[in-house]
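WP5 quarterly update. Target: Transcriptional regulator. Source organism: Marinibacterium profundimaris. Length: 90 aa.
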Amino acid sequence: MGHTVQNKSKLIARVRRLRGQMEAIERALEAEVSCAEILNLAASVRGATNGLVVELLEDHLRNHVVDVEGDAQRKAGADELIEVMRRHLK
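Structure tokens (predicted):
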């Protein structure tokens, strides 16, 4: 997966932000803040996670379906993408 290596620093930065957001939820729970605040923090994590997934899906689509030569490679990339989306959307 060369494209994840090319975007490695950007992807790691996203994951680190997610970790920070999860730690914020943990601190909020420990501090017994209101449930509304915790729900807002959780919604932020969901949004950040979705953003990461969209970026990964876009990279996969470009690198394993659109920009490949040969129908066999294109089909394999599309099949992988379909399987990942099925798991993600459950």
